[in-house]
Amino acid sequence: MTMMRKLLHISAILALLLVAPVSASADPVYEAGVLEYQDIEPTITYTQGVLYINGAEGKTLEIVSLTGRKVMEKQIDSPAQKFELNIPKGCYIVKVGNVVRKISVR
User: Fold this and answer.
1) Domain 43-105 sits in CATH 2.60.40.3080
2) What is the DSSP secondary structure assignment for residue 18, as one 8-state letter?
3) Which residues of 77-87 are buried (b: 16+ CB within 10 A; e: fewer)?
4) pLDDT over 70 for what percent of the chain?
5) Beta bridge partners of residue 60, listed in sequence order
6) In the chain, where are the structural domains located?
7) Which of 2, 66, 69, 95 has the most other CB atoms within 10 Å of its CB?
8) Which helix (H) or strand (E) segment is 60 a member of?
């Protein structure tokens, strides 16, 4: 291959790389004045007897003991919701959509 052809191939590859869309974030996408939200993973936080769920509206919250017994199941009806847990001390598995976390109730 001549030097000129090699340069043309390299510049064509670089042009394709620069034109190809690259986006793997879950941040809002702005297009033509329209705000669109991509799937954002729900957040699960547990502090002092209160379970906080953010970004899971319309999903189901499940809490299961380590022995496999379902302790609680609730429908999440707002973007940010809190649940006061009145469950015995121990470790539990919390599932919201595809997100699974372990919490320790003390």
Assistant:
1) yes
2) H
3) eeeebebebee
4) 71
5) 75
6) 43-105
7) 95
8) strand 60-65
